[in-house]
Amino acid sequence: MEYIPHVNFLPPNFNQALPGPFPFKHLPDYNGEVFLHDPNKKQWAVRYIFSKRPALSGGWGKFAVGNNLESDDVCIFELIKKKHMKVHIFRVLEDIKPLLRPGRVKDLVANAEANENFKALIDY
């Protein structure tokens, strides 16, 4: 099990650097697909970029949004088999709100009357 210091503030391109020796010790020395297993046991395919500064790329954004990751949440990556990592998430805030992209917020506001489930979120 290896500790990754924190989840970066999620930039528009949703890349996540993997600092320290973890990627060099445990991940392939080539670009390719790896699989993340979230706390709910859902599997996510993510593009791994091998370089001097390894990172998770394509698919990381979906994982981050799907798991409501926020700045300074801590992720611990546990290698469970080759190219498969279980991600343990420790949250900086207990009360999490789903991440919404700006375009999605506009859609929700426009459809708020039709969809009461989002009314409380929009009014928040």
Question: In words, what does this structure look like?
Answer:
It is found in: Nucleus. There is one protein chain. This protein has a 7-stranded mixed β-sheet with strand order 1-6-7-3-4-5-2. The chain has helices spanning 22-26, 60-66, 102-110, 119-123; strands at residues 2-4, 16-17, 32-37, 43-49, 55-56, 74-81, 84-90. The chain has 124 residues and is of the alpha+beta class. The chain starts with a strand and ends with a helix. The chain has 2 domains: 2-93, Beta Barrel (At1g16640 B3 domain), CATH 2.40.330; 100-124, no CATH class.
Order of helices and strands: EEHEEEHEEHH
CATH homologous superfamily of the largest domain, by name?
Answer: DNA-binding pseudobarrel domain
Indicate the CATH topology of the largest domain.
At1g16640 B3 domain
Helix/strand class: alpha+beta
- Quick one: overall form? globular
- Bin the strand percentage: 25-35%
The whole-angstrom Rg is: 16 Å
Oligomeric grouping of the chains:
single chain
Percent of residues in helices comes to 10-25%
Instruction: Give the strand order, joined by hyphens, for the main sheet.
Output: 1-6-7-3-4-5-2
Instruction: Please tell me the total number of domains.
Output: 2
Which parts are unreliable, with pLDDT below 50 for 5 consecutive residues or more? 118-124
In total, how many beta strands?
7
**What is the annotated CATH architecture of the largest domain?**
Beta Barrel
Estimate the mean pLDDT confidence: 76
Domain TF-B3: 1-93
Protein name: TF-B3 domain-containing protein
InterPro entries: B3_DNA-bd, DNA-bd_pseudobarrel_sf, REM16-like
Keywords: DNA-binding, Nucleus, Transcription, Transcription regulation
